[in-house]
Amino acid sequence: MAGASTPKMAAAVTRAGAMGSLGAALQSVEATRADVKAIRGSTNGAYNINFFVHEEAVSDEAKNEATRAQLTPYYEELGLGDVPAARVSSRPFNEEHLVAVLDLKPPVVSFHFGLPKKELFDAVKAAGIFTVSSATTVTEAQQLEASGIDAIVAQGIEAGGHRGTFAKPYEDGWVGTMALVPQIADAVSVPVIAAGGIADGRGIAAALMLGASAAQLGTAFLSCPESMIPQVHRDALDNARDDETRLTSAFSGRPARGLKNRYMREMAGKENEFPDFPILNALTGPLRKASAAAGSPDFVSLWAGQAAALNKTMLAGNLVEALVAETESVLKGVGGS
Predict the structure, then answer these.
(1) Entry pTM
(2) What angle do CA 257, 217, 299 make, to 5 degrees?
């Protein structure tokens, strides 16, 4: 939930008895340090800090300039002037991040898009920090376990935001949560955390019945007042339907699921023309920000999973309490007691 999660939300979730998470992938190390201190100041419970571990971007001038040309009409429409120069806007987990992690010692560190370099990962493990990473196939899960991961997020195709796939082709990871979770649970010995299309206690209970040890919810918390998504994103979630999400690479350069809008429709089919992730973020970032400020969803990355229509707008801590009550009710009904 990089760009949407906040220390306030993570702390509230933890205080309510779940484990709050902070998406640190798109911010500076200094900001992460400050955010971790803010979380610590609000709770003494467990929390997770998440990082991206994508391959370093390789700049392709032809793709950079072609994409800038494609975006120019949109920039002109919003009065933004020239499309900015292509640049790498964020880095994968590296030595600088490691120094901060070893200094801050968060209870849990999670990774998306695989694992960092072995020496970095080994250092995190040696510090006694619990590690988690995402898998979208059984093969990826087995690779993570062989590398020493402590728990695996089984991310179904229904999940909102970026796909955690790290073994190409991406299409191999287009497996639904209900099919993926039990297969990964059978294939590995570490705990499995179900993610994707889970938005209420029924989904959590189902995940547990499928062999997961826990469930990870993202989209459900976007509607909480503590998240930092813009109002146009909140409005879109309020009106979401089950058939309105799509996968797109048009915002960042990697496949991610969000509510469909004009930009996604008009950029469909052009995936092979985009610069590497996360270079494209630098080109679309001003467009997304301006669109949100103008109250238009046209160019905003409206990340959401397929269960977005089930979202409830309430404080994060209250949402955790509601989810626990729902889950317990369902499991009690299943148990017949």
Answers:
(1) 0.96
(2) 30
